[in-house]
Amino acid sequence: xxxxxxxxxxxxxxxxxxxxxxxxxxxxxxxxxxxxxxxxxxxxxxxxxxxxxxxxxxxxxxxxxxxxxxxxxxxxxxxxxxxxxxxxxxxxxxxxxxxxxxxxxxxxxxxxxxxxxxxxxxxxxxxxxxxxxxxxxxxxxxxxxxxxxxxxxxxxxxxxxxxxxxxxxxxxxxxx
Length: 176
Known about the structure:
This protein is an all-alpha fold. Helix content is about 70%, strand content about 0%. The protein has seven helices and no strands.
């Protein structure tokens, strides 16, 4: 029978019942978690990252996304960014500058999200316009019918006004 490796992760209060169940299978090699701490895959589970590191990684992802958004709109030959001047370590690690850059990155991402929202809205409107295009001919017929009706009403009103003027003239009624 070939030996197989099995990693188990369990709650401390269930440890003894789990060990008893495993011992019923026969040959076992049981190691404590200290041996697994050297394995990088298990180290992440055994020692989770501090919240500060998680926040820094998220800030880094946000900056990378903002730079990517700017880079995709840069010039093809020269790029969007001019070469940066050399800066000192204190300038590079300045907390106020970092906060300002993070705010700019958030603003860039906000504008990028708004652009995507407007692009999506434009696509929906274009799709709606295309779906209504077959009905455009009927709209033209409707407008022509309405224009003819309006011209008939205007013509009838003109006839009635001239007939009314003739009657008033014949009766000697003065409209002044």
